[in-house]
Automatic annotation (TrEMBL):
UniProt source species: Denticeps clupeoides
Keywords on record: Cell membrane, Cell projection, Glycoprotein, Leucine-rich repeat, Lipoprotein, Membrane, Receptor, Repeat, Signal
Encoding gene per record: rtn4rl1b
Gene3D superfamilies: Ribonuclease Inhibitor (3.80.10.10)
Name used for this protein in its record: Reticulon-4 receptor-like 1
Localization (cell): Cell membrane; Cell projection; Membrane raft; Membrane
Residue stretches of biased makeup (Basic residues): 384-398
Amino acid sequence: MFRRGCGLEFLLVLCGLELSWSCPRHCICYTAPSTVSCQAHNFLSVPEGIPPYSERIFLQNNKIHRLLRGHFSPTTVTLWIYSNNISYIEPSTFQGFSVLEELDLGDNRHLRSLAAETFHGLGRLHALHLYRCGLSVLPSNIFQGLRNLQYLYLQDNHLEFLQDDIFVDLHNLSHLFLHGNRLWSLHQNTFRGLGALDRLLLHHNQLQWVDRLAFHDLRRLTTLYLFNNSLTELSGDCLALLPSLEYLRLNDNPWECDCKSLSLWDWLKRFRGSTSTVGCVSPAELGGKDLKQLRKEDFPNCSGSESLHQSKTNSLAGTDKVSLKKELHPPQPQPQPPHAHHPHPNEQYPSPPSLIPRPPTSLDGGQSGSSDISPGGEPQQRPGRPRNCTRQRVRGTKGKGLNEVHTLKEMADKEYSSPDFAGGDSKYDHTSLDGSTPRRKHKCQPRTTVRPPSGVQQANNRAAPQRPLLLLCSLLGVFAILTVEHVVR
């Protein structure tokens, strides 16, 4: 009897069927790679019965409150739990997940805090999503050991301060999204260690002060967004530390175009990349003018040595200046921009025309800035400049819909989730005025789209399409065993 069972099991394996048919109720399961899709079913907790060797788990758009150790298997490679009600993550939830590559915890607005060791040991993680989580502070070593991380999404939280060296272990990070927070200062070692960073988005914060050496490690940075902050001055020496910079956005700041701005004016005159307008607010006679268009005569009482002395003095002041400003002029709370539109469950996201992420039309909310920015909102590539190629990531569709794994698409809606980037349906309109789709030259090819695996297994432990095959294989197995016994006799 034992031999007969072994023979039947062997034949079933040859037929490509699995002996275990477990799949959580109301979910859909796949094989090769093993996938569990439980999205948009109003689960209040992680459903029971997830196969222990699942590689991809999709739990988005539910009402899950807590993540605890044992909910998932260390074999997990991709885990999406965005758009839930998660308020607590046990520090050991992801302990031992050495093959995890993508973790999406975004749009959990009640999360608010994380233990320092939550992500420790995730050595293969390349994308971490923590956008719209209500986070007001990050522990100093929360990203410790994440040396393969390439994409870090921290936008639309309540962060007011970043501790020194918080990103120091992220040697391969290429995209860092910090827009839509409440940051008001950048220090000398805020971004230390980010030698591979290509894109840094800091718009829609409350930045008042940037240290002269704040960008000293960002030798490969090509894109820097500082628009819509509270900057009145920025040292040209600060930007001179960015030799690969191609796209710079400084509009919608209250710039003071006096002697303090002379070093920035001089740097902008020499910069060969794409920039936005730098609108002057003061002095009154220069109000409304673009700092880039001013002449030397517009700074009548300034000398180069005076400007340089002020720049060095501000840099040496460092921490004292920040603490003094914090005491005398504490940052006033400002009304936050409305959150990006979330579609109704019945709405469908239109498919984007391109796999290369780019900002939608009119990045600055209507102010076109420099002519170096194309009508479609994408800065035009200047010929002859080397491109810091970083692997682009292809994201999956993140909208409520049918209970199935959607075809993967680009991540443009994550990079540019700020309300100013969207105007009606313009969030998904990436075409230029002539109807063509602008593309950045010398851009790396996006990652190949992962197609849904074959062999769909329906919920409730039933796999109707495979029943005839299972019955046939079983009959063949019994027939083979009886034949062998008859021959032996």
